[in-house]
Specification:
The complex is a heterodimer of chains A (158) and B (85).
Chain A: E1 8-9, H1 16-73, H2 77-103, H3 111-136, E2 149-150, H4 152-157
Antiparallel strand pairs in A: 1-2
Helix pairs in contact in A: 1-2, 1-3
Chain B: H1 2-50, H2 55-83
Classes of the chains: A mainly alpha (158), B mainly alpha (85).
């Protein structure tokens, strides 16, 4: 009697975090004019510029976080753990350095619209995305894609 | 003259203390999310190791969990940037 082949999924072939990050970036582009307009109305040109910088930082944070996970998953699960935690530290450190640099760069930067936009955009985009994930039970913003099935023989042949 | 110097020194000290407070607050605010992210990723890795076929869903949940946990650190960041002299 032939043994039933065990099906193993190659989990390095799917990149849900990258899809989520791109989806978040797309949504950020949609909401960007509203935040820039609010910054401009409340604080003038400095407010608009600060809100725009905050939006760019939020999107960059999502994209870099996703890229770190995608890259680390291809190495190993242990690498994933280390990469996520050290990536978190590095991203927070980079944010602090950028904030200090922006604050000292001149009069064009307003801290309040920057802070409001950063926090509201980050949380708002996540809540928006989570609603979408819950609605589809699949990868957000995309039609569900079949996971590539790999038999042990094919896996060994790789 | 001495009075002016004392006032200047006091003003600089307040600014310095503000900067120290902002940095300390940001650092302390980052501890909790760090622990949270460790928990999220650890459990996601467990899930992926036990059920590799559901790795896509585990990673989706993990990424969103990390991002939500990171929002707590961003609150500390916002306080930091507002306190920064």
């Amino acid at each position: 009697m032939a043994a039933t082949p065990t099906i193993v999924a190659d989990h390095t072939q799917v990149t849900p975090e990258r899809d989520i990050a791109r989806d978040l970036a797309r949504r950020a582009v949609w909401v960007a004019p509203a935040f820039v307009a609010i910054g401009a109305i409340g604080w003038g040109a400095t407010g608009a510029a600060s809100a725009a910088v905050a939006l760019v930082l939020v999107v960059a944070n999502f994209l870099i976080g996703a890229a770190i996970i995608t890259r680390a998953v291809g190495i190993s699960l242990n690498a994933l753990y280390g990469a996520v935690l050290f990536g978190y530290l590095v991203r927070l450190g980079a944010l602090a350095v950028i904030a200090v640099a922006l604050k000292g760069s001149g009069d064009w930067f307003a801290a309040v619209p920057f802070a409001i936009t950063l926090l509201v955009t980050h949380l708002g985009l996540l809540v928006w995305e989570t609603r979408h994930v819950s609605a589809s039970l699949a990868f957000p913003g995309l039609a569900p894609q079949p996971v590539q099935q790999v038999t042990p023989e094919e896996n060994h042949a790789k | 003259m001495l009075n002016v110097l004392a006032q200047t020194a006091a003003g600089e000290m307040v600014e310095g203390l503000k900067a120290i407070g902002a940095g300390l607050g940001y650092g302390l605010a980052a501890i909790g999310p760090g622990i949270g992210i460790g928990t999220v990723v650890g459990n996601a890795i467990s899930a992926m190791a036990r059920q590799p076929e559901s790795a896509g869903m585990a990673r989706t949940t993990m990424f969103l969990g990390i991002a939500f946990t990171e929002a707590l650190a961003l609150i500390g960041f916002v306080v930091f940037i507002l306190l920064l002299p």
